[in-house]
Amino acid sequence: MASRGFTDSQIEAFTWVMKTRSATEAAEKMLISQPAVSRLIKQLEERLGFSLFERVNNRLLPTRHGSLFYNEVERVYVGLNHLKQFADKIKDTAAGQLRIVSMPSFATSLLPSAAILLAEQFPELEMSLYSYRSEQIPTDMAAERFDFAITLSAEQDARYQSYFYSLPTAFIVPKHHPLAQKSVITPQDLQGETLIVGEPEERSRATIINRLNELDIKPKKIWTVSLSDIATRLVANGKGISVINAVSALDAEQHWGVVCRPFEEPIESQLQLILPLDKNMDPATQKLVMELKQIIERKIYQCGSQLITDN
Hints:
Number of strands: 11
Distance between the termini: 66 Å
CATH class of the largest domain: Alpha Beta
Domain HTH lysR-type: 10-63
Protein name: LysR family transcriptional regulator
CATH topology of the largest domain: D-Maltodextrin-Binding Protein, domain 2
Pfam family, one: HTH_1
Low-confidence stretches: none
Mean pLDDT: 88
Family: Belongs to the LysR transcriptional regulatory family.
Order of helices and strands: HHHEEHEHHEHEEEHEHEHEEH
Number of domains: 3
CATH superfamily of the largest domain: Periplasmic binding protein-like II
Largest sheet: 9 strands, mixed
Structural class: alpha/beta
GO molecular function: DNA-binding transcription factor activity; sequence-specific DNA binding
C-alpha cells in the first residue's frame, strides 16, 4: 500500500526502528540489510520534510515529530489490520467456514457433539472450535471474532443476538458407589461424602452448599474445580461425587463410565447462545448458525428428557 508517496517498506522500516530503537535490529526483523533500512528511513524523512530520529548513545531515539507521526501510523495500521481480519472472515465464510467458541464446561461435550451433527448436514463445511472463559466470550462476539458462541454469561449487548435456555444439572457418581443404585440423589445422600463442586461464584455450588447448611448436612470434604471435565475425571477415579450441567453429565456417563443421576431439588443454570446480528451475516453463515442453534436446542431438550426417562 502506497499512500501520499509512502511505501509499505518505508512505513515498516519506520515502525521497526521505533520498536527496536536500532536500524540493525529492524533490518533483522525485515530480513534486509541495515543500509537498506537506513535508506528507507531517509526516503521517508525526505517525503515528510522532517527528521524522525536522532542518534543518542548509539541508539536511534524518535524526535518529537517522529513520535507524533508514529502515533498516527499505529492508529491507521490498527484500522487496516481490522479491515484485513474482516476481509479474511468474509473469504472464509464464502469458502464454507464457521468459527465457534464455547466456555470450557461445554467445550468437551456440547460443542463437539453439536459440531459433529452440523458436519453431517454440511460435509464440505470447515469449522474452527475454540474454548474461552465465559466472561471473555461476550466481548469477543461483540467484536465479531466468532460466528457462534456458547456461554453461561448473562451479559447482553446490542451488537449481537442473545438466546437464553434453562439447563438442568445432575450428579455424577462412581459406577460402583452405593449412590449409583439410587434413582435420585437427595441432600441427605451427601452426608459424609466428598463433594466436588465448581468455583464459589457458580450457581449450582452456592445452591447446594446453602441447602446443606440449612439442613445441617456435612459432607466429608469439599473439592473445588474450575472445569466440569476435571470433576468428571476425579469422579471416574472414585475421588468423590459431583454436580455438573446435565449435558456434560450425560456425556461423562457415556464416555467415562460414571453414573448420572438427577438431584431431588432441581438446580438450573442459564445457558446463553450468542449469534451475530442478522445484518452482519451473509445468507450462508446465517443458515449455518441457525442450524447449529437448532441442534443445540434439541440436545438441551433431550438432556432434560433423558434424565427423567432414565431415572
